Each structure stands twice: as C-alpha cells, then as structure tokens.
Fold this sequence. Notes:
Blueprint: H1 2-7, H2 12-47, H3 68-74, H4 78-100, H5 103-106, H6 112-125, H7 131-152, H8 162-183, H9 189-216, H10 222-246, H11 251-272, H12 282-304, H13 322-330
Helix pairs in contact: 2-4, 2-6, 4-9, 6-7, 6-11, 7-12, 8-9, 8-10, 9-10, 9-11, 11-12
Amino acid sequence: MSLLSGLLPAGHALAVLLALTGAVLLALGTHAQHAAVTRSELARSKVAKPEAARPEEGRSGAAGSGHPAGMRRLLRTPLWLLGGALIVLETVSNVIALGLAPIALIQPLGTASLALAVLLGARASHSPLTREAVFAVLLTAGSVAAFVSISAQHVEHSPASPDAAGVLAALLIAGSFAGVLLARSRAGHLARVAAAGILFGCVASGAHVAAARFLAGEGLPLPVWIVIAALAPASAVGVWLVQTAYASGSAATVLAGLTVIDPIAAVTVGTLVLGEYGTLPASSLALLAVSAAGALWGVRLLVGHRHGTLQAPRSPAVSASADTMGDAHREGVPLHP
C-alpha cells in the first residue's frame, strides 16, 4: 500500500488496490463459470438425440446456455453460482474503486485478470507455461502498469455534469436494446464478445458517475438517476451476451472482451463524454499509445495461447465432438461431470 501511495496521487492508491483485487475475482469467477457452462454443454450433448443436430437448432443458441432452459439449468449449478458470486464481489470492489478514482486509472487494471486466467488454465491442465505465455503475461502487466502510471499524472477526477450524465444514460439505454437484439440473433461469437465488452465499458462509466457523485456528497440530479436505473438492465444484457459467447467459442476470447474492449470503451467514454483527461503533452500521449499497443499485443498472445482456451463447437446445441471434448479435458474440465 505504501508503494502505491508513493507512485499515485493521494486517494488513488486504495482505488488501485481495490481494482486489482477485482481483477483477481473476475479471473476466478470467469474460470468457474466457463467450466460450469462447458460441463453443462458436454453433459447435454451426451444425452441428445441424433435429430437434435438439426441446423435450425443452432439459431439463437437454441438449447444452449443462452436459451432460457439452458440458463435455468446453470442457475442450479453450484460451480456457476460460485463464479457468479465472485463476479458480484468483483463488481462491488470495482464500483468503489471507480468512485475513488478516474475511469482511465481503474478500468485498464482489469486486464490483469486475463494474465491470471492463463495461469489458472495452465494449472488446471497440469501443463507448464511456455516462454511465449510468460512473455505475454509480463508484457501485458508491464504495459498496463505503464498506462496507469502515466494516466495518473494527467487525469482529472471530478463528478460528471448533468449533461454528461444524460449522454451516458442515452448510451446505456441504446446499448441495452442493441444487446438484446444481438443476443437473440444469429450473430457470431466475436460480435457477441465485442458487444459485451462495449456494454460493460459503458456500465463501468455509469457506475463511476454515480459512485463519484455519491462519495463527493454532491447529490444526484435526474440524469444520474436515469444512469443508475439503466445500469441493471445493461448489466443483465451484458451477462446474457457473455453466456451465449461461452456456448459458442473460447473462454479466453470472452475474457479478452471483458478485459480489453471494456477498458477501451470506458476510457473512450471518460475522455469524450466525461472529459477526464486534461491537456496531454505530446510525449505523454505517445507513451500512452505505446503502452496501450503493448497491452493489446500481450493480450493477443494470451488469447492465442492454448491454455485456458476451448475450440468453438460447430453449433451451440451440439458440442460432443471428440476434438471439443479433448480440448475441454485439457482445460481441466472433467469429461464426466
């Protein structure tokens, strides 16, 4: 804590510590939920009748975890519920951190959860980390640390104006409607991941606006109340998109969406809507760009690493092929739940 206090402005050290704690909780919760979804898909496919593979059942993730029946099954799964509880704790920790410091300082720290997920995947599969994976973890962590330390010198932490809160409320409402349409569509895995990341970035921005005004004791005008009201449906739609993405592709890609697209969206909202950055010298802007590029490169390497990844099934409704089951086993998911 004393080291953080020496590197960061007063009041921001606790926020960074809370954000890092949240990153650990997110990695653990995501790992648990993906394992639960994978077990559910494998168990269901083993009892599915041959006619269940009809092409039309792949629409909108029918019978998969994105379908109401699939979600009800997951809600009775202890491992999935444990993962959800950890993610709730991560949300609480992150909201408090967002109330104490600017978005640009807090949201990028969530990328640390992806590096931890790689370590969890390696442990679950009982496989040693490759040199590339170690390099990717160090590159990601170092780049994010550099981005945060540079941002700390230039961001301005002040409660959002009512006009800015109104713009953010409109973004949350529009994003929620768009997310529902996408979750019910035949859109592919990457589109769902990107939409979830953007929506959670807007949710983080809304949580920052509400928490910052509450902790500053400045009252909550009507636009901020609208932001607060829009947070629950936007979060629910984001979770829905995440579950459908789990059923159609890689856990690492999903986590990348939550830890990379999320902070990019949040920092963009903080910069363009909330006006968090002051005047940036050219040298600082260049360093921010280099550190962001380094983090993205590291994340790309992490996502491509075979530990913690799962080959996308050909259909969310049928995922019992031998190669898919083998990949699940290498991830540490038992073939027989």
